[in-house]
Amino acid sequence: MPPKRALSPTPSQASTAIYRSSPITDRSSRFVAIYSPSLTTKQLQSRPEFSDATHRITACRAPSTQRSLIPSQPLYATTHSDDGEKYGGKAVASVLSDLNIEGSVVVARWYGGIMLGPVRFDHIKNCARDAISKHLHSSEQSLQVKKARTIADDEEKRRADLIRVLPERDQSISVLRVLLAEKQAATTTSPKVDKVVSPAKVLEYSKLPLKALENLERARDATIGWILAQIEKAEVAQQTEILQPAEIPQQAEVATYAG
User: Fold this and answer.
1) Phi first, then psi: what are they for 61, rounded to 5°?
2) Is 30 within 8 Å of 110 (Cβ atoms)?
3) Helix, strand, coil shares of the chain as percentages rounded to 5?
4) Closest to 54 in 3D by CA, of 99, 117, 114
């Protein structure tokens, strides 16, 4: 069948990297595939390493210019060329479709003088799949590295925020403790406590790991919550003491009148 016009892969694919399969040799015939997510089949086919190949079978899969009736299911256009290996291009194109991937593949075959029969299509597809798998593995590794870098950056930002915030929490705790002592001193029912100032030993937060800083943040928040609850209790007790003297004469007057 005549070669079909090669499609250009999607412009969104910026990488020009080429991924090469491991060679397969069978009765003096050798098969090697290369895959690129961005280069055209013509560019791959014209590589010097394939100049003496008997067949340079190609396939390309790219987004179709036609609109899909279902937006979540885009359409793809696939072209292929046998280059003398009948049905070879279709075999390579099926690998792109099965893996649901865009890009161009060339499978080169150096004929060894012995006909292989249908098994040659297995070699063609296995080479194509191997080249694409190496791209997918490389992409997965890149994503993992990027994810790890993002996590590390987020953790460092979180650590810097805690190093800045924790001294402010310490200062808030010192101020609240003084306020609590004053509130409790103003009542007769609340237990008296000594005024507490900032701790004599200041922690060097910049030397602590993130986990320790997060634990300290939780501890500081719990302390602030407890002190605020005690201040509220002291204020309630203070209000009760203010109201009680006004009630006592009325009770006494009622008792005298009754007598």
Assistant:
1) -130, 125
2) yes
3) 55, 15, 30
4) 114
Q: How far apart are CA 153 and CA 150, in angstroms?
A: 5
Alpha-carbon gap, residue 132 to 98, rounded angstroms = 11
Distance of CA 4 to the CA centre of its chain: 40
Q: Which secondary structure element, helix H or strand E, spans residue 55, and what is its range?
A: strand 55-63
Q: Is the dihedral of CA 190, 193, 198, 203 positive or negative?
A: negative
User: What pLDDT, on the 0 to 100 scale, is given for residue 253?
Assistant: 47
- Residue 252, pLDDT > 70, answer no
- 89 contacts 21 by C-beta, under 8 angstroms: no
The one-character DSSP state at 68 is: P
> How far is it, in rounded angstroms, from Cα 38 to Cα 256?
103
- At residue 229, what is the residue type? A
Residue partners of 182: CB distance under 8 A and separation at least 6 = 195
**Cβ neighbours for 124, distance < 8 A, ≥ 6 positions apart:** 31, 33, 57, 85, 88, 91, 92, 107, 109
pLDDT band at 10 (very low <50, low <70, confident <90, very high): very low
Q: Which tokens in the block code for residue 24?
A: 């397969």
Rounded CA separation 198/12 (Å): 58
Enclosing H/E stretch for 41 = helix 41-45
